[in-house]
TrEMBL record:
Name of the protein in question: Amidohydrolase
Annotated cofactor note: The Mn(2+) ion enhances activity.
Record's keyword annotation contains Metal-binding: yes
GO annotation (BP), single: diaminopimelate biosynthetic process
Keywords, alphabetical: Hydrolase, Manganese, Metal-binding, Signal
Molecular function, one GO term: N-acetyldiaminopimelate deacetylase activity
Coiled coil: none
Provenance organism: Singulisphaera acidiphila (strain ATCC BAA-1392 / DSM 18658 / VKM B-2454 / MOB10)
Cofactor dependence: Mn(2+)
Length: 436
């Protein structure tokens, strides 16, 4: 067990329970009064998913729910973002963020409330849409937290800044909201919190990482140019498909032979498009890459290596100059260690030491890290969403359960939502305790 956790558990075991602020208990009458409505809200959101920067109805519903809970709501922040402000006297300002968007995935869970939604994506293609990353759980937890804060104002003091953020999956929504004045038009937060479901932990639990938790992500487009012609006369062409194949293999040596091995880095080619027919050599091939790193200099090294390799291949094969474009980028999500240290004891006291687990950082990416702009301390913890029995059965069979973004991922709504609300309200009460 890591030393930090041993120290924190020791504090919890030695200190009186009254030292720590806590969220609602599982048998709290508040849950009995609200759980059915919250699960119904989750089911509605799951059945009506919307793609990034298309979350019109989703934003409207979250704005309506926050308004009914007593928040002063502003919509259209960063295009489709929602900001709800709940003031309760003097005290700190705590931002709590949820994401709104879903994914272009055709759901295969077979659930009675499975999504059958379709949409037209940014490329003009008709796609199926699913909440395969748990944003519907996140939204429901935010609404539950707002309701709980509204009915327990004797337990906290300050300002809750409740955020519904669009386009997390495009790692664009946080930047859009911040660029639209989130920290200037509204109260600037003293702390920023978020939760995110995980598909490999049981309901009733949360996991955390102190410091770097999620990698920075950069999307890169590479256009490899050639000289098209007949497939039977390759000598009269410059084949961009061959160049693309060479480039894809050569890209892997950037990580294996140029990046310091103690610095994590991932380079993945996720898409390759070129050609129209068996016997035609095309004029170009387009690649789409994702880069992951925890350091800006490592990210820059990956980009420079990509540019150098495709340029060198083009010169060697007498091909036109390739084009490398940075489509989008977001920094790593770093949980501020001092904030983690402060909140962990109340999570342990609220959920129990066995239900709060430290985990390693991952190379997945989030744009939540941007809320740390200007030195705002941030903390995102992970929320277990799988029934323990389902996990135990999979382990016994040697099976791996569906991951996030899978068409088969489905959380257990009621206990996931309950734990998310308990954990988040406990964190908020620690940061915004009632004034004596």
């Amino acid at each position: 067990m890591p030393l930090l956790r041993v120290w924190l558990v020791s504090i919890v075991l030695l200190a009186p329970a009254a030292v720590f602020a806590k969220g609602p208990a599982p048998d709290d009458p508040w849950f009995q009064a609200n759980q059915a409505e919250l699960v119904a809200l989750y089911t509605h959101l799951h059945t009506h998913p919307e793609l990034s920067f298309q979350e019109v109805k989703t934003a409207e519903r979250i704005a309506e729910e926050l308004t009914q809970a007593g928040a002063v709501v502003t919509t259209g922040v960063g295009k489709l973002g929602v900001v709800g402000i709940m003031k309760n006297g003097p005290g700190p300002t705590v931002l709590v963020r949820t994401d709104l968007d879903a994914l272009p995935v055709a759901e295969e869970t077979g659930l009675p409330y499975a999504s059958k939604a379709t949409a037209v994506d940014s490329a003009g293609k008709s796609v199926s849409v699913m909440h395969a990353c748990g944003h519907d759980i996140h939204m429901t937890c935010l609404v539950g937290v707002a309701r709980w804060l509204a009915t327990h104002k004797d337990q906290w003091a300050g300002t809750a800044l409740l955020i519904g953020q669009p386009a997390e999956e495009m790692i664009s929504g946080a930047k859009a909201m911040l660029d639209d004045g989130l920290y200037t038009r509204f109260p600037r937060p003293d702390f920023a919190l978020a939760l995110h479901v995980t598909a490999d932990q049981p309901t009733g639990t949360v996991t955390y990482t102190s410091g770097p938790a999620l990698a920075g992500s950069t999307a890169v487009d590479v256009q490899i140019k050639g000289k098209g012609g007949h497939g039977a006369s390759p000598h009269s062409t410059v084949d961009p498909i061959v160049l693309a194949a060479l480039a894809i293999l050569d890209f892997q040596t950037i990580v294996s032979r140029e990046i310091n091995p103690i610095h994590p880095a991932v380079l993945t080619v996720g898409s390759i498009h070129g050609g129209t027919k068996h016997n035609i050599i095309s004029n170009e091939v387009k690649l789409q890459l994702t880069l992951r790193a925890y350091r800006d200099d490592v990210r820059d090294q990956l980009i420079e290596g990509i540019k150098r390799r495709v340029k060198g291949l083009a010169q060697a094969h007498q091909a036109p100059e390739p084009v490398v474009s940075i489509v989008e980028s977001t920094p790593p999500t770093i949980n501020t260690p001092s904030l983690v240290t402060r909140i962990l004891p109340v999570l342990i006291e609220t959920l129990g030491a066995s239900n709060v687990k430290e985990v390693e950082p991952v190379m997945g990416a989030e744009d939540f890290g941007l809320y740390g702009r200007g030195g705002v301390p941030t903390f995102m913890f992970r929320l277990g969403s799988i029934p323990p029995q389902r996990l135990n059965e999979a382990t016994a069979k040697g099976e791996v359960l569906p991951s996030l973004h899978s068409a088969l991922y489905h959380p257990d709504p009621a206990p996931s939502i309950q734990t998310g609300i308990r954990a988040m309200t406990a964190a908020i009460l620690e940061l915004m305790p009632a004034q004596p």
